[in-house]
Amino acid sequence: MSILANKIGFLGCGNMAKSLIQGLLDRGCHPNTIWVSDHCNLQGKLQSLSQTGIHATTNNQEIVKSVDMLVLCVKPH
């Protein structure tokens, strides 16, 4: 099974997550298989992602329950 066939979730919606998501999309991953969570939703990042078909939420638990693979994209502090 290809990694692109899995539901992939990202906790965090910063530059690192956006770069990884763009790489997945460039390689043929369908937007509706990508989930993103950001508890702050700074600058409306989640809204702009959801307009592309990516699942976006402020609820981390929703992401964890919905995906096959989880990527932590948070600052280490």
Report on the structure:
This protein is of the alpha/beta class. The chain contains three helices and four strands, in the order βαβαβαβ. It has helices at 15-26, 45-50, 60-66, and strands at residues 8-11, 34-37, 55-57, 69-72. A four-stranded parallel β-sheet has the order 3-2-1-4. Helix 2 links the parallel strand 2 (34-37) and strand 3 (55-57). It is globular. The termini are far apart.
Q: Using only CA atoms, what is the Rg?
A: 11 Å
Please give the oligomerization state of what you see.
single chain
Anisotropy-based shape: globular
What is the strand tally?
Answer: 4
Structural class, from secondary structure content? alpha/beta
| Helical residue percent band | 25-40%
Average predicted local confidence, pLDDT: 88
Strand order of the largest sheet: 3-2-1-4
Number of helices, counting only DSSP H or I runs of 4 residues or more? 3
- Following the backbone from N to C, one meets helices and strands in this order, namely EHEHEHE
Distance between the termini: 35 Å
Q: Largest beta sheet, briefly?
A: 4 strands, parallel
Strand content: 15-25%
Unreliable parts = none
Fill in the keyword field for this structure.
single chain, 77 residues, alpha/beta, 4-stranded parallel sheet, 3 helices, 4 strands, 32% helix, globular
